[in-house]
Amino acid sequence: MIEKIDIEDLKEIALKAGEAIMQIYNKDFSVDYKDDKSPLTEADLKSNEIICTNLQKLYPNIPIMSEENKQVSYDTRKDWEYYFCVDPIDGTKEFIKKNGEFTVNIALIHKNTPVLGVVYAPALKELYSAKQGDGAYLSIVNSQLSIVESKKLPYIKEDKSTINVVASKSHLSEETQEFIDNLALNTEHLTLVSKGSSLKLCMVATGQADIYPRLAPTMEWDTAAADAIVRESGKMTYQFHSKFNIENPKVEKPVVYNKADLLNPWFVVK
Fold first, then answer.
1. How far apart are CA 167 and CA 259, in angstroms?
2. Of 116, 180, 201, 263, which one has the fewest beta carbons inside 10 Å?
């Protein structure tokens, strides 16, 4: 199935959604709140409409799970071999603050593993993409929505003398801070950068960050697309637990998708 998916189609859809988002971003807009108190804007709904309509047109036989759609019961989706996992805007809080750190996210999941991902940051004009076996890339987009430059990930070499940590801008939990403090005790040089949305996973994929700990709640659609990019860049998103092996995380279990409960476990991207 994955060989039948043209990643250029998904990039095009993400760019279209991003264009619509920016039209709303650049004017005054209202904010509503969902039952879980998370914010919702006109841009979330418009982006979702564009993504879902275009995916259904191109790939009518592949189900779609989106944050902004009614959720399908586990009894139905547990039998899905492939499905699209969509977050029309990850980082709605950053969108509302107008700091540019929000993304459009489209992933293809095979059983419980993200095998293709597109992440577009429309305010930053950065388009991240990956397809299993084909590598991960960062493309720069111009004002006409054409790709002007692409780099294979990771493009920054690891500096063993410094640990670069990226953490959430709007959701830094006490547990995450404690994890970072413990890292600092065991390294001579540690830098900490705060970033919004799925861009944090993308920073590990590029090599800009060595580690992204998230010891706080996220949903599968928050991470799926960027997780595909992380994995194809040679990194991994690991499930965190109290005895997590930071020195050798490869002994740990990867995060999995299409669970009965769509809440992610705490995780560490490294």
1. 25
2. 263
